[in-house]
Backbone:
C-alpha cells in the first residue's frame, strides 16, 4: 500500500510515494489545530511514521502547522522540509535531548526521579549544514545515546536471561539510521520474547516472573503499550536493573545545548511536564535560568496536562504556565509526541480545557513557521541579527513573525525567494508576504 511505502526505510521509495500522493490527492481545508511536536521514526514514532508520512497525515487532518522533533538527531530535517514545501504545509523542525541544570541540581524538574535533569529542546532548525562546533556537539549527542543504550542492554540482558538482545541485530534494524531509543529497546525485547515463547501462556509467565507482577497484570501481549511500558518501567527507569542515576557529567549543561541551538540558527526551547515537580513549581526561576543562556520559546504537551471534564491541579498549572509564556513573550508550541502507543495525532483543541488556550498555540506555530521560512535562505529568523536590528522589543517582534506566519504559506516559496532579501524592513517583508499570497 502507498501508505506503508511512506514509512519505508528507503528514502527513494518515500519520495516516489509522496510525489504520487501530491499529484493525486485532494486535501481538506486548513483547520485551527496544530501538532508541532511529533517524533518520527528517526527517534521513535509508535506508528512508524517517517517525516514524509507525518507531513502527509498533517495535510489530511488539515493542520494549520506541523512540526517534527526527534531525540538527539536532525536526520529528518531535509526530508520534512521538502515534504512540507511540496504539500504546502506550514512547518518547523526541532531536536530534543536531556540536559543538566546546575542551579536545580537538587530539584526534580521534568525527568521523573532525576534531580537536575531536564528534557530540553531546540526549535526552528532549517539546515543540516551547521558550524563545525555545532556538528561536534550533535555527533556527541548521537554517540553518547548509543553508548547509554549498549550499557543498558548489557545490564538488562543479564536480568532477563535467557532473553538476550543483540543490539546490532535486534535493535538497529528497527531504526532507519541507527538512532535507537529506550522505546526501541522495549519493542525489541517484546518481539524477541514473543519469538522465544510463541504460546501466550508461556510468554505471560515469562514476563510475570521476570518483571515481578501478577500474570493478570501482563496486558496487550506481545508488544502493546501496557507491556512495553512495563518493560521500560521495570528495567530501564529508576529502580530498574538497567537504570544508572545520571549526574552532572551524564548530559550536557542546558547552557551548552542552548549554545549549540543558537549556532545552528534555531531557538533554544524550554519544555514543560505538568507543573507537579518541585522544580516546575519554581517555574519562573527555572525559565529565567534558561533565558539567561538563550531560551526564547516554550513547549508543552497539552494532552498530558488535563483530564477531560475535570478541573484539577494539572489544568490550573497549565493555565498558569501558558499565561507565564505570554507575560514573557515566549512563543508557545505544542503537540502530542506520538512516541508512545495510543497517543493522539493532534490535540483536542475543541475541548473545554484547551479551547481557551488554542489561540496561543496557533500564534506560536505561526511564529515558528515564519522563523523557519525566513531563516532558511536569508538568515532573517527570530534570533537573527536582522531581527535584533528591526525590533526594539519582544512584543513587536512576535507581532511581526505571527503576522508573517499567518499570511504566508509554502506554496508561495518561489515568488518569495525571488524578491526577499535581508536589506528589507519588517514592514516590507510583511507587505511582500501579502503580495506573494494574493498573486
Residues:
Amino acid at each position: 500500500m502507498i501508505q506503508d511505502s511512506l514509512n519505508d526505510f528507503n528514502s527513494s521509495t518515500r519520495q516516489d510515494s509522496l510525489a504520487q500522493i501530491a499529484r493525486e490527492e485532494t486535501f481538506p481545508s486548513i483547520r485551527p489545530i496544530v501538532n508541532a511536536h511529533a517524533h518520527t521514526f528517526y527517534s521513535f514514532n509508535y506508528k512508524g511514521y517517517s517525516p514524509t508520512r507525518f507531513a502527509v497525515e498533517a495535510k489530511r487532518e488539515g493542520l494549520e502547522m506541523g512540526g517534527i522533533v526527534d531525540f538527539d538527531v536532525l536526520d529528518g530535517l531535509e526530508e520534512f522540509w521538502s515534504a512540507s514545501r511540496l504539500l504546502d504545509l506550514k512547518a518547523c523542525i526541532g531536536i530534543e535531548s536531556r540536559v543538566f541544570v546546575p542551579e536545580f541540581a537538587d530539584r526534580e524538574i521534568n525527568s521523573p526521579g532525576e534531580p537536575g535533569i531536564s528534557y530540553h529542546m531546540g526549535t526552528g532548525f532549517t539546515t543540516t549544514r551547521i558550524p563545525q562546533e555545532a556538528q561536534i556537539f550533535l555527533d556527541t549527542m548521537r554517540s553518547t545515546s548509543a553508548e547509554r543504550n549498549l550499557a543498558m542492554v548489557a545490564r538488562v540482558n543479564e536480568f532477563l536471561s535467557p532473553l538476550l538482545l543483540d543490539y546490532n541485530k535486534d535493535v538497529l534494524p528497527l531504526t532507519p539510521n541507527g538512532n535507537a531509543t529506550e522505546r526501541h529497546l522495549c519493542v525489541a525485547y517484546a518481539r524477541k520474547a514473543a519469538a522465544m515463547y510463541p504460546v501466550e501462556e508461556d510468554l505471560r509467565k515469562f514476563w510475570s516472573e521476570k518483571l515481578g507482577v501478577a500474570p493478570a497484570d501482563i496486558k496487550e501481549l506481545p508488544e502493546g503499550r501496557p507491556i512495553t511500558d512495563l518493560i521500560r518501567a521495570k528495567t530501564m527507569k529508576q529502580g530498574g536493573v538497567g537504570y544508572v542515576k545520571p549526574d552532572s557529567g551524564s548530559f550536557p549543561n542546558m547552557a551548552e545545548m542552548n549554545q549549540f541551538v543558537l549556532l545552528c540558527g534555531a531557538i533554544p526551547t524550554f519544555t514543560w511536564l505538568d507543573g507537579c515537580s518541585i522544580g516546575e513549581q519554581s517555574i519562573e526561576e527555572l525559565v529565567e535560568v534558561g533565558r539567561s543562556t538563550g531560551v526564547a520559546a516554550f513547549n508543552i504537551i497539552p494532552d498530558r496536562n488535563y483530564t477531560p471534564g475535570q478541573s484539577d491541579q494539572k489544568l490550573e498549572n497549565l493555565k498558569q504556565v501558558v499565561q507565564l509564556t505570554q507575560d514573557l513573550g515566549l512563543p508557545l508550541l505544542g503537540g502530542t509526541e506520538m512516541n508512545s502507543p495510543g497517543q493522539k495525532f493532534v490535540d483536542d483543541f475543541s475541548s473545554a480545557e484547551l479551547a481557551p488556550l488554542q489561540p496561543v498555540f496557533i500564534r506560536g506555530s505561526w511564529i515558528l513557521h515564519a522563523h523557519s521560512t525566513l531563516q532558511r535562505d536569508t538568515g532573517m529568523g527570530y534570533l537573527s541579527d536582522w531581527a535584533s536590528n528591526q525590533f526594539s522589543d519582544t512584543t513587536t517582534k512576535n507581532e511581526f513573525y505571527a503576522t508573517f506566519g499567518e499570511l504566508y504559506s509554502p506554496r508561495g516559496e518561489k515568488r518569495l525567494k525571488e524578491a526577499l532579501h535581508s536589506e528589507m524592513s519588517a514592514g516590507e517583508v510583511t507587505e511582500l508576504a501579502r503580495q506573494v499570497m494574493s498573486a
Q: What stands out?
A: The chain has 17 helices and seven strands. The chain has a mean pLDDT of 96. Residues 148 and 244 are 9 Å apart (CA to CA). The beta strands are 34-38, 65-71, 91-100, 117-123, 267-272, 297-300, 332-334.
